[in-house]
Hints:
This protein is α+β, with helices and mostly antiparallel strands. Helix content is 24%, strand content 33%. It has four domains: 2-46 and 326-467, Orthogonal Bundle (Neutral Protease, domain 2); 49-244, tricorn interacting facor f3 domain (Immunoglobulin-like, Sandwich); 479-569, Immunoglobulin-like, CATH 2.60.40.1840; 572-652, Sandwich (Immunoglobulin-like), CATH 2.60.40.
Amino acid sequence: MRLIKAILIFIVSVFQLNAYLHAQQLFYSADVEKMISLEKTQGYEKVMFKENVLTQDYDQVYLRANWQIDPTIYYIRGELVYYIHPLSSDLNTLYFELSDSLQFNWFIFHGDTSFNFERPGGDLIALHLNAPFNANIDSVTLNYEGAPPSSGFGSFNQSTHLNDSIIWTLSEPYGSSDWFPGKRSLTDKLDSLDVFIKTPMKYHAGTAGILVSETPISGTDEKMIHWRHRYPIANYLIGVAITNYAVINEIALLHSGDSVKIINYIYPEDSAIYAANPPVAIPFLQLYSDYFGDYPFKEEKYGHAQFNWGGGMEHQTMSFVYGLEYYELVAHELAHQWFGNKVTCGSWQDIWLNEGFATYLSGLCYEQLAPQYWTLFKQGRQASAFTDSTGSVFCEDTSDVSRIFSGSLTYSKGAYLLHMLRWKLGDEIFFKGVYEYINDTTLCYGFARTDDLVQHLEAASGQQLDEFFNDWFYGKGYPIYHLKWAKLPDNKINIAIHQTQNNPTVSYFEMPVPLLLKNALHDTLVVIQNDANDLTYTIGPLSFIPDSIFFDPDLWLLAKKDTPQYDPMLSQLVAIYPNPASDAITIIFHGDQEVVEEITLFDLTGKKMISLNTAAASFYDPVTIDISNLSGGYYLVNLRTNKQQYVQRMVKF
């Protein structure tokens, strides 16, 4: 019964969502490019950042953070307890990164506050330990305060909305040390986290994890807010947003029978509009959970905190977003909870594993929940991908931030690579392979490379995907298709396919090509496995006679095409003209998936007069042969294909 109820709620949510979409701002055009541009700016600092070697002699295990933040005052006070695992047997100095703009007061180690510390510059604290560090795990308490500097996008921000103040943090990529001491690293995640925030009574604070309590502090107009997080998390994904939020709680019932609590922190002036309309994120979360396994942090929550920065940031379990009315932004940031947070790309060369998936999953929401926009989404991603034929989805130059966060290659072509894999493998196998990848226990809450995805897709399909990834992942550009067709007897047709490539790194894009055959009353879709150029394919017998052909009507392929042309010459298997001829003959050949390997002219005594190796020649258009040096008389023209031989007589005069 619980599953039936969840499905009914899902159906109702989808119906309401479609009705509401006229008020939603679809996010697939200029706004997507804006989001990509902002992420590119974030990425610049990520790529250029080098971890400080002085912080690499220990692993972070646990953090208990106590912060005092009042949104009306640009200031922070903090007391942090770190549990640390030493990587060196003689660890006697601990280094933490903290902006030199902040005041460091003291630290406690083994209950003693008498130890010395230094501020050597370079945003570092050096804690000199005069007692031995425990071999397994030990703890240290840090106390600091100050007005944080602002770097990157503003790692610690104060602003206003309507008539009140807000403070939010945006540490992506490495701004965490601007507002709390720690270790800026992509390779060392905290295993767990507790956050305590002391703030005026009227405010709410959002961050990672589950809300444990909001407790009034006796004798004051303040309260203590406690959040608990029990999943691995990088320091830059620790964020807080504090203002007089209206809190809107929702429950997403998953079809597995579980549920996920969703907490939305919305500006009061926007909350009435949001509350009056269906929750936009719930159908997305249900959809992703159905395809890729339940929400990765379902034991805690998912949420949104509204902030003033244009765009969004996929903080773990609580995305910060400019507004929940942006359909594709909400879908994109939620998708990162699986592809980016649960499994993270292990190299900038494979950044598409984060951004290509998040882009495609936002399109999946259109397909499944708002199908009237699915074609527009595909057209938009195609148009974007077509703008760059000089690079590949594989990022060759990881020092070039513009290339890493290329909207054309990483986002759009990366998304279309997934779309074409889905077409090539079929829905069941494609989604099974992706499911196995994102739920691989050796990758979960860790890192992955493209080869990890390929291995799971090959295991699910039984196919070798080297050719596909050589063309579409490592290769550059896209194919352009040219088609001709003609009717044959017995309700059959011939279709000839010629492909050109706009970048020489790919000699041929082998793909299943979908074609729609139709007339005024009937239509049918046929799929041609097109693995070589300039072949003719005989289709039929059909139940009707088509009068037109449409290439890839559902936009499965990242390809351009001409309008298919009707050419009556394709109705002839072999033809030679003119015949008789004086200087040259033209040969037409349209055998079903046959390649002409050699053309030989014999005289009537059997003497070979002309021999042409035509294995690499194109018979998409007729082939012309010079016979001006032959004497007048009768000749036999022999066409040898990969399947059989054809002989026709000609006359030279």
